[in-house]
Amino acid sequence: MDRTRFFVRVAALYALIGAFMGSHMAGGGGLQLSAIHAHILVVGWLSLFAFGIYYRVFSIPKGSKLATAHVWTSFFGVFGLTVGMWLYYTQPIDGMSTFNTIFFIVGGTVLLIAFALFAIMAFIHGRFISEDA
């Protein structure tokens, strides 16, 4: 899998969703979903894009199990956090509040694990992170 391409493409989708939400809120005059909009743009667009650029700039080994875990926890964590946040704040289906809360918490926890894996990876694969070519 090309980690850079994967992250940049998924980030582009989150950018589109976040921009659409922002324009919809601005046009409608309602800011009720602004926290969800902000998280879609920050963790969905900016973080995933930054991770994609990280893999492009630094030669992290393709076979790294740590990098693979980072990619998938990032992907599922961003999805879980943003969708869980939407479910939690909008409660679109009656009687699902416990599920919505758990979905939100699990998504956020998986994303937190992704960021921890990224921090660990920055030190384990630190020899690849350099200004030298």
TrEMBL record:
Keywords: Membrane, Transmembrane, Transmembrane helix. InterPro entries: Cyt_c_oxase-like_su1_sf. The chain crosses the membrane at residues 38-57, 69-89, 101-124. This is Cytochrome C and Quinol oxidase polypeptide I. It comes from Halobacillus dabanensis.
